[in-house]
Amino acid sequence: MSIPETNTIITIGRQFGSAGLAIGRQVAHDLGIKLYYKEILDEIIPDDLPANKSPDVLTGLKHKNSILYSLVMDKTNAGNYIDMPINHKKFISQVDTIKKIVKDGPCVLVGLCADYALADRSDVLSFYIHADLNTRIRRIARICDVTDSKALDMINETDATRCNYYNFYTGKNWGDADSYHMCLDSSILGIDGTAEIIKQLVKMKENTLNKKL
């Protein structure tokens, strides 16, 4: 891995079929930083989740109406972490792992509710990638070798799953502009163009001294 060309941690939420992962991969490659997404994080998180969890995982979490906050701060649940459903434990471990990962330096995190996990940090720039439905249908149909009808079903199912997961655990609204720093339509500039926009915005963030409105 070359010397990173940025000091910024980049998080990317994305609609299914908007090429969010491909864009994240391009940004990470061009900036010389690591890329993390669900499949990679699953390999990092230990199979044996701890019986007790330090409240340090809550450091800096700003959305106190989130399920994570209530799970850990509620004295009954906090005192009986071992009795929590496994999916809640996995989410807590996911947040904890993300916080540890970024201590090693800047990176790109795709999905994972990473914008929420890192809400306390000033060196984060969060993006949401979306695209028009027809573009996404064509992309999924091509990549997965399925009919347009099947592609649409896959898009609706995956987006609903991502939305429900994000909203449930973060207390924010998936895809809502207020939940991110920037929302970008990848159907306008494609993978390379959208990746370039992200890199330019990161550069502007790092070089702009007067950020007052």
Instruction: Label the structural class.
Output: alpha/beta
Shape: globular
Amount of helix = 40-55%
Number of helices: 9
Order of helices and strands: EHEHHHHEHEHHEH
Computed over alpha carbons, the radius of gyration is: 18 Å
Largest sheet: 5 strands, parallel
Gap between N and C termini, in Å? 37 Å
List low-pLDDT spans: none
Strands side by side in the biggest sheet: 2-3-1-4-5
Descriptive overview:
Helix content is 51%, strand content 11%. It is built from 9 helices and 5 strands. It has helices at 20-31, 38-44, 67-73, 75-79, 86-101, 114-117, 133-144, 148-170, 186-207, and strands at residues 9-14, 34-36, 107-110, 124-130, 182-185. A 5-stranded parallel β-sheet has the order 2-3-1-4-5. Helix 1 packs parallel to helix 9 (186-207) and helix 7 crosses helix 8 (148-170). The model has no long low-confidence stretch (mean pLDDT 85).
Layout of strands and helices, then pairs:
Blueprint lengths: L8 E6 L5 H12 L2 E3 L1 H7 L22 H7 L1 H5 L6 H16 L5 E4 L3 H4 L6 E7 L2 H12 L3 H23 L11 E4 H22 L6
Parallel strand pairs: 1-3, 1-4, 2-3, 4-5
Helix pairs in contact: 1-9, 7-8
